[in-house]
């Protein structure tokens, strides 16, 4: 598990109140060629021009202009731009959307604990849903790149809409649910380590760690021992 810990990006994305980071990436950007890394936040990528060869969780796809990809938290990913590619990225903490007595919590916990993984290419069998996803994400990227008063609330609302579209058509990766035991545990281990790195200044209990993985405290002890 520890062999891939050095690939942890380990940086703060946004603020505690609005944990979003937005990037516009062109050939002059320091990280134009995206090195292999992972983080405990989710990421959405939009290609504006050219081609982007994106590898995530040992899967490689080619994104064209106007196409999007979703990177699940804890997944190692990298990208190689081609044909003068320009692309945008948003990195955000899914736990922002958890609220007491929220109907969305069960769904969000399944994403945070990696019991469900959203499809990398965001392509469903429904052309209507595909258009709705693209429209929603296009508005989200525009909102982040052109911040005005209230843009944080608008961004959060758009991500809620995006996630509801994902859930509506069950746009999850079957391979993600059938990962080998070791692969899934490595991903969960990354989530735990990243959580500890962010909260090390506070008292962290076993209940805190078990809650982010939806495990009983006794199961959490067994997991950490492994």
From TrEMBL:
GO BP term, pick one: regulation of DNA-templated transcription
Signal sequence, renumbered to the chain: none
Pfam name, any one: AraC_binding
One MF term in the entry's GO annotations: DNA binding
Chain ranges of the AraC-type arabinose-binding/dimerisation domain: 27-99
InterPro entries: AraC-bd, RmlC-like_jellyroll, RmlC_Cupin_sf
Record keywords, A-Z: DNA-binding
Protein's recorded name: AraC-like ligand binding domain
Annotated source species: Anaerobiospirillum thomasii
